[in-house]
Amino acid sequence: MRHEAEPAEPPDDVDARLAARLADLRTEHGWSLGELAQRTGISRSTLSRAERAEISPTASLLNRLCHAYGRTMSRLLGEVEAEPAPLVRAGEQPVWQDRASGFVRRSVSPPHPALRGELVEGRLAVGADIAYDRPPVAGLEQHIWVLEGALDVTAEKAERRLEAGDCLRLRVWGPTRFRCSGDAPTRYVLSVVLP
């Protein structure tokens, strides 16, 4: 399984701040690279490279780290942004890309540690296939609303094909998979609610 993607260019500001935040979180928990590697199943060298912004982490890698730190991905990405405002204009919404898989993630709603819900826009290129081995937080509630294209979602060993307009609600306890198997890109809204 691939855990990293080589950056095509030097890290941008978000990647650099993300790397610094990952290093800070590990320090806050008092974990060595070896301890974090044991908790996440990610090699020490990959963790070290991610904390130095030598690689751009994949969605799968970030998901494993979020699980270890008890955070959603939106919260982690929100922590590398400025203090959240109650209104975020479309052009100011943070966008993160997993270049290895063809996944683009836009944090639509302003994240806030005191709130339990958030909205995310996901875009998958044709053929994109993202697998998460566990949720960042056990029991996470998700509502997946497909706006364009088709999305194959696997959760609890059941695969469901969602077409434009379809919405799937689920609680996530184990592995999940998001796949764009159609002949057009997929765009969807993900509503995430902490348990």
Key features of this structure:
single chain; 195 residues; 6-stranded antiparallel beta sheet; 4-stranded antiparallel beta sheet; 5 helices; 26% helix; globular; disordered N terminus
Task: Outline the secondary-structure elements.
Layout: E1 4-5, H1 13-29, H2 33-40, H3 44-51, E2 56-57, H4 59-69, H5 73-79, E3 95-98, E4 103-107, E5 117-124, E6 129-132, E7 140-148, E8 150-155, E9 158-163, E10 167-172, E11 176-179, E12 186-193
Antiparallel strand pairs: 1-2, 3-4, 4-5, 5-12, 6-11, 7-10, 7-12, 8-9, 8-11
Radius of gyration: 16 Å
Strands in their spatial order, largest beta sheet: 3-4-5-12-7-10
Question: What is the typical, i.e. mean, pLDDT?
Answer: 88
Q: Structural class, from secondary structure content? A: alpha+beta
**Total beta-strand segments:** 12
Q: Helix and strand succession? A: EHHHEHHEEEEEEEEEE
Structure description:
- The protein has helices at 13-29, 33-40, 44-51, 59-69, 73-79, and strands at 4-5, 56-57, 95-98, 103-107, 117-124, 129-132, 140-148, 150-155, 158-163, 167-172, 176-179, 186-193.
- The chain is α+β, with helices and mostly antiparallel strands.
- The strands form 3 sheets. It has a 6-stranded antiparallel beta sheet, covered by helices on one side. The chain has a 4-stranded antiparallel beta sheet with strand order 6-11-8-9.
- Strand 3 (95-98) and strand 4 (103-107) form a beta hairpin.
- The longest helix is centred in the first third of the chain and has 17 residues, at 13-29.
- The model is unreliable at 1-8 (pLDDT under 50).
